[in-house]
Design brief:
The complex is a heterotrimer. In chain A, α9 packs across α12. By secondary structure, chain A is α+β, with helices and mostly antiparallel strands. Helix content of chain A is about 35%, strand content about 10%. Chain A starts with a helix and ends with a strand. Chain A contains twelve helices and eleven strands. Chain A has a three-stranded mixed β-sheet. Chain A has a two-stranded antiparallel sheet with strand order 1-2. By secondary structure, chain B is mainly β. Chain B has no helices and eight strands. In chain B, the strands form two sheets. Chain B has a five-stranded mixed β-sheet, with no helix packed on it. In chain B, β7 and β8 form a beta hairpin. In chain C, α1 packs across α2. The chains are: A alpha+beta, B mainly beta, C alpha+beta. At the B-C interface, β3, β5 and β6 of B face β6 and β7 of C.
């Protein structure tokens, strides 16, 4: 795509030939020629297995990368537009919309996506963004909860994420969230399934290498929900976890289960320092 | 497929007379190819947007025929010459007979 | 739309089968489509350009651009798809250039063909092979 590539170059995508079939590339992600996204950072202190952390964007082909550099080219924004309408629409028995309490989503939700999952003192539990959206719907709107990884849910998560784009992921791992974080960490390093693979076997030990024709990333979730070219819709991190564990030929956990909430907390914290870049585009 | 179909169109708000501008369009649509089968093994019938047109003040810019090989959420990018102040009209034609429309004004100053 | 890996493989296998057994039928289908567009006229090598990735990360969404200065129409075909037609672009008097980009589905590695009807009524043809990779992790 000559023209697309030219546009991408103008927007700051600097393609550097990589020496082989490994490692992330050196491209820089600037969205709409304006929002600078940190796709590489020093690994957070708690993370011993890596020195540098990279966004999954750095492992994709240039054409896929370019699709995320302009919100018009990014098909996830069809869902973001739809969620913006939902945000302003009264729903449920309480006669309220999201906007009734929260006003302008781009103002009130600024920074929210960067800190989730996080401890909720009132409910005394670690909540993912999806759990918080559903709590808001059932408790405040008196509306039905969304399916945990439904299109409505991923669209709302994408909208809320847009308000934090470019801000550094900053998930707390101490205090009351710590025990769940430890549980997630243990899962990350546990070998599952008949193939006896842990998350770390692919995403820590072998990122940059190829698994069949797929360029393995570090499995960072700063870009979720993700618009995948494969299924042409937004995908939740828990569905990705499910797919990964299934691919090890194991019985998988359910999206929204305490196990996946713990894993999300831990995996999110591995990306502390990368920018929120959701909704991202991947293959 | 009449529910939830929404177009997005990007056109600059102004141009100089005779300027060539870039237009991007995207519409939410499953583009069911007719090649897939459901879980019972029955063929899922084709349901796509089969034509897209762009006109400016009644004159044609682009008239595109779409086949099932166009991806979900059809994206089309093209260029138009803007001779005067006026309105771009975009029309998508669905297999099921539905027609989706959008329009964008542009000022020549 | 969501092609599972199995479906994608099946499509690919179908394409592979086609290339063995009824290869002529598929090639004939492409030839027929081209003949219908050109009326059997000769096609020049220069005058139409096709930009597509050499390697597409996913066959479900492949960015592609066609361009033919002065053309009235460009026909786009994917020779290895179960149904080869992809799109036809008709350029009107207010087209700013005879260029268009879209995103297409490719059932596997194959030849993508663009044929333009140029301003003087003659035709030009170009093609490009796009390699479609199948991912490592179906989920």
């Amino acid at each position: 795509m000559l023209k697309r590539t030219t546009t991408a170059l103008a927007a700051g995508l600097i393609a550097v030939a990589t020496g082989g079939w490994a490692d992330p590339d050196e491209n820089q992600l600037v969205v709409n020629g304006d929002i600078e996204i940190t796709t590489q950072a020093a690994a957070p202190a708690h993370l011993e297995g890596l020195s540098e952390i990279y966004s999954g964007w750095r492992f994709r082909e240039v054409d896929t990368q370019a699709t995320q550099m302009d919100d018009f080219d990014n098909p996830a924004f069809l869902a973001v537009d739809a969620a913006q309408e939902v945000w302003n629409t009264v729903e449920g028995e309480a006669g309220k919309s999201c906007a009734t309490c929260h006003g302008d989503v781009m103002e009130s939700m600024k920074g929210v996506r960067a800190t989730y999952p996080k401890w909720n003192g009132e409910a005394e539990e670690v909540r993912t963004l999806a759990m918080q959206i559903n709590a808001c719907r059932t408790d405040n709107l008196d509306a039905d909860a969304y399916g945990y990884t439904s299109g409505d849910m991923t669209a709302m998560e994408a909208l809320i994420s847009v308000a934090s784009r470019g801000m550094p992921v900053d998930v707390a791992i101490d205090g009351p969230a710590q025990s769940m974080w430890e549980q997630g960490k243990e899962m990350y390093y546990t070998r599952y399934g008949q193939l006896e693979l842990s998350c770390a076997n692919c995403h820590e030990d072998n990122y940059g290498n190829y698994i069949r024709a797929d360029h393995l990333s570090q499995g960072q979730i700063n870009g979720f929900p993700v618009y995948r070219l494969k299924n042409t819709k937004l995908n939740a991190s828990h569905d990705r976890f499910k797919g990964c564990i299934r691919d090890t030929r194991a019985e998988t956990f359910k999206p929204g289960s305490p196990e996946f909430v713990a894993l999300e907390l831990y995996v999110a914290s591995r990306g502390n320092g990368l920018s929120v870049e959701a909704p991202s585009v991947r293959n | 497929m009449a529910t939830g179909v929404k177009p997005r169109v990007k056109v600059p708000g102004s141009a100089s007379a005779g300027e060539v501008i870039t237009i991007k369009t995207l519409i939410s649509h499953q583009m069911e190819s007719g090649q897939r089968k459901d879980s019972d093994g029955n063929k899922i019938p084709r349901s796509i947007i089969n034509r897209f047109t762009c006109e400016f003040n009644g004159q044609s810019v682009l008239d595109m025929t779409l086949e099932p090989a166009i991806s979900t959420n059809p994206y089309v990018e093209f260029q138009a010459t803007v001779p005067e102040t006026g309105e771009f009209k975009f029309t998508w034609y669905d297999d099921d007979g539905d027609v989706y429309e959008d329009s964008k004004p542009i000022t020549v100053g | 739309m969501d092609f599972t890996r199995r479906e994608t493989l099946a499509l690919g296998a179908g394409a592979a089968l086609l290339s063995f057994l009824p290869f002529r039928a598929n090639a004939a289908a492409v030839d027929d489509l081209i003949a219908e567009f050109t009326g059997g006229a000769e096609m020049a090598d220069a005058g139409v350009e096709l930009n597509a990735p050499e390697i597409a990360e996913n066959g479900n969404t492949v960015p592609i651009e066609v361009s033919a200065p002065g053309a009235s129409a460009i026909l786009l075909l994917a020779a290895g798809n179960p149904t080869p037609p992809v799109a036809k672009f008709g350029f009107g008097p207010l087209a700013g250039s005879q260029t268009a980009s879209t995103r297409i589905r490719l059932a596997g590695t194959q030849e993508v063909i663009a044929i333009a009807q140029l301003g003087d009524g003659t035709f030009a043809r170009t093609s490009k092979t796009v390699k479609v990779t199948i991912g490592g992790c179906g989920g």
